[in-house]
């Protein structure tokens, strides 16, 4: 039987803070390979947490399990006050609408404008043609989409076709689209991959700004050591199917982290 998730309270200064995420005994197997071998951790709200580990250590699997894009084999997940594993399909959809996901590949519609793509983000909250077509979107949705584009520094490219803007700008449009969901929690799976160093840095800065200025919580996978050190408050390291590292970023030692990136602990 699964252990109940009792969100342990974390002390932040003198205030008791409810975790935004509590994971207990999380396991995931593919065929006979157990990739996640019983993970336990909690995250406090309003923090940026970096998830690191060697190729194949299970980072993406963990992220996907948190929103049940991959079904956990066993274990408990409490996120944003929801018992995620027990959610039925309709409630699962509602829950997912509160979680913004940023992928390495952003799946924008290339021939549509940046603004139209951002408007599509409202589908998490609204269905039908009004969520699909810029011309049918209510004025308040269009205004909110413009505000999201402005938040990512692209208000002046609203009418540009997505296939005419740079890779970094496309990633920003994807982040603006995700903001249309009004998420409370962001999961980001290598948002800085396939971008040049400067652009990757700008995207990471943007995500950290959402934590610092907008109070969102972020769990971000990055293969770049310098980004992990610069853009997180806490670092979780996966190795051999377990959480093998958990420390505040200010205490991190670059050489010790390097081993996680290079070879340590594929599952
Ligand atoms: N749907 C699946 N079916 C079978 N095996 C899978 C599936 N998804 C992932 N795996 C395997 O699980 C292991 C962990 O994969 P995962 O993508 O989670 O690792 P990762 O740490 O994110 O790797 P990377 O850093 O290379 O992206 C890998 O061996 C992978 O091949």
TrEMBL record:
Domain (ABC transporter): residue spans on this chain: 21-265
SMART domains in alphabetical order: AAA
Entry GO MF terms: ATP binding; ATP hydrolysis activity
Keyword field: ATP-binding, Nucleotide-binding, Transport
Pfam family, one: ABC_tran
Origin: domain of life: Bacteria
PROSITE patterns: ABC_TRANSPORTER_1, ABC_TRANSPORTER_2
UniProt xrefs under InterPro entries: AAA+_ATPase (IPR003593), ABC_transporter-like_ATP-bd (IPR003439), ABC_transporter-like_CS (IPR017871), MetN_ABC_transporter-like (IPR050086), P-loop_NTPase (IPR027417)
Protein name: ATP-binding cassette domain-containing protein
